[in-house]
Amino acid sequence: MIRIENLVYTYRHGEDTDVIPALCGVSLSVEKGSFTSVIGRNGSGKSTLAKSINALVLPTEGRVFVEGFDTQDESALWEVRQRVGMVFQNPDNQLVSAVVEDDVAFGPENLGVDPDEIRKRIRFALDSVDMYEHRKMAPHLLSGGQKQRIAIAGVIAMRPDVIIFDEPTAMLDPGGRQEVLDIMHSLNEEGITVVLITHFMEETVKSDRIIIMDNGRIALEGTPVEVFSHPAEIEALGLKLPFAVEVAAGLRRNGIDVPEDILDTEELTQYILQRAARSEPAAVH
Question: Fewest 10 Å CB contacts: which of 34, 88, 161, 223?
Fold first, then answer.
């Protein structure tokens, strides 16, 4: 679906001749239908990587291909941006209309979609994020989590093959964060390729693949189990292991054989409860 080859991107500092490297020879691929999480500290290059995928920024060196289309090819930009949707951190910066359903219609209208088809897409997109009953409301009256769900619906309505989420939960409370995470995984289960940019390690545990960025380079990558098996390297990169992974590691150090693939709090809780139930002495009658 996405192929990145030796990607370099540099920012210029004002009118100075000095350049600031954001990406330094990044190469990776993203499989169709996968859920990939990209994580790293501020300034690690993860957001620049995201913007490179849908050609919001173009490579200084190297190549980015989306379903075979080269983002450096100006004639292919329309094809790339039809295939790759993007949801940003601040939902207020993505909402453009005074009524929810008009906002969701904005993207398809700009793609020249037939009005009857647009109405179907509005219904489908708002149903996908459980916001159809709010279709006549003004976006400014919604909560932060609801606004982000409307922003996601606007992208869904354009029917992209890939959706990039660039720190979509950073401005949300825990309830709103979980709602948006659930929507991302639901979309992925329906076949949409998801790329999540985040600085919350807990959000990555159900990914197919995790990529950790540092100083414009890939520092670690692999499945969640593979990546979280390098706690010292993760901490050296200024990141913190998910709470459940830390607890599970502590239990293993104390002789409790917790499976390596238990990565989130719910799974760990269930394991501890089941283990406790097995170890309870039989009742005396």
Answer: 223
- Strand order of the β-sheet with 61-66 is 19-30, 2-12, 61-66, 69-70
- Rounded Cα distance, 181 and 203, in Å: 7
Considering the four listed CATH numbers 3.40.50.300, 2.60.120.10, 3.40.1400.10, 3.40.50.1000, the one that applies to the domain covering 2-99+156-240 is 3.40.50.300
- Name the strand (E) or helix (H) holding 84: strand 84-87
From residue 9, how far is each of 58, 106, 128, 211 by CA, in Å?
8, 31, 35, 18
pLDDT at position 13 is 67
CB 80 within 8 A of CB 54: yes
Distances (CA, A) of 257 to 206, 254, 262: 21, 9, 11
Residues 13-67: pLDDT tens digits?
Answer: 666 667 788 999 999 999 999 999 999 998 899 999 999 999 999 999 999 999 9
Q: Which of the residues in the chain have pLDDT under 50?
A: 284-285
Task: Give the pLDDT confidence score for residue 17 in this predicted structure.
Answer: 64
Residue type, 132: Y
- What is the pLDDT at residue 76? 92
Q: In the chain, what is the straight-line distance between the N-terminal and C-terminal CA atoms, in Å?
A: 63
Q: What are phi and psi of 214, to 5 degrees?
A: -155, 125
Q: Would you list the domain boundaries of the chain? A: 2-99+156-240, 242-279
Give the CA radius of gyration of the chain.
Answer: 21
Full-model pTM: 0.89
Q: What is the dihedral of CA 230, 235, 241, 247, to 10 degrees?
A: 80
- Identify the residue whose tokens are 């693939």: 261
Residue 132: half-sphere exposure toward Cβ, Cα within 13 Å: 12
